[in-house]
Every structure is written in C-alpha cells, then in structure tokens.
Amino acid sequence: MRARDRDTAPRSRTVGFQVPAELDQLSMVHALAETVLLVGGFALDEVTDLLLALDEVATALMLVATPDTLLDCSFTGGDGALGARVSAVAREPAALDEQSFGWHVVATLTDALRTDYAGFDAARDGYPTTVEFGWIRRLHGPAKS
Questions:
Q1: Within a 10 A sphere around the Cβ of 106, how many other Cβ atoms?
Q2: Sign (positive or negative) of CA dihedral 31, 37, 38, 39
Q3: From CA 89, how far away is CA 14, in angstroms rounded?
Q4: Out of 3, 14, 54, 102, which could bridge 76 as a Cys pair, Cβ 3.0 to 4.6 Å?
Q5: Inter-axis angle of helices 44-64 and 101-109, to 10 degrees?
Q6: Tens-place pLDDT, residues 103-140
Q7: Which sign does the torsion angle of CA 76, 82, 83, 89 carry?
Q8: How far apart are CA 13 and CA 25, in angstroms?
Q9: ∠98-100-102 over CA atoms, to 5°?
Q10: DSSP symbols for 105-136
C-alpha cells in the first residue's frame, strides 16, 4: 500500500472466536466480545447495547444447537460501525424464534439484522444457521457543516 493511500483505506478489522455452543459458555462469549469491543474503541454505553444484542443471539443459537457444535463469532469494526456474525449448527431448519421478545430487543438495538438458514448438512448433522447484525454509531450534538 502506498503511503498516501493509508489515509483513505477503510479502517476495519475482523476478530473472531469459537466456543462450544453450550449455555455455560455464554459468559465466555460475553467476556471475549466485551474485550473486542472495548479494544475496538466503543464507548461503555455502546458496548452494553451491543453485548445485550449478542447475548440474545448467542443464547438463541445455543438453545437450538446440535450436540458438540461450536458457536462461531466474528466482529468487523471500524469508523464507528460494527458488523457481527454468529453461527452454529441447529438441530432443525429455521429453528430460531424471530417473533420472540428477545429477537425484538436485538432488532431494536441494531441497525440491521439478518438470519440465514442453510439446508441440511450431513457432514455436520444439522442445519447451519447464521445471524448477522450491524450497528452504526450515532453522532451526538449538533451536526458538523
């Protein structure tokens, strides 16, 4: 990359981790994500909202996950925005209850929310399910002209 291009290059990074898709791992997901967000420069109130959304998504996936599957989490952040991708292998197709109160909380706290249900994967003995959500920092105070 040329030196003059560094000022205009996107400033985003992706960080990810995997944990067993079991409810007793939720605190690990929370702690790892909190570290990623704080190191990524998000403010405490932003981190709180994003962690609540992540907790809901991770819990929903853990409840429908096949035995011995992993919860795969990745976060891409930069310039005041965050993209999160959380996936696991579910026991049933379209297993998440997207009409639940928890799902409405996620939709309220995020700017984009999408669920992808793949067909049965015989090698993984289940249905790969991925939830993606995005969030954009709001500017506070008067707009700059």
A1: 20
A2: positive
A3: 22
A4: 14
A5: 140
A6: 999 999 999 999 999 999 999 999 999 999 999 987 65
A7: positive
A8: 24
A9: 100
A10: HHHHH-SEEEEEEPPPBTTTTBEEEEEEEEEE
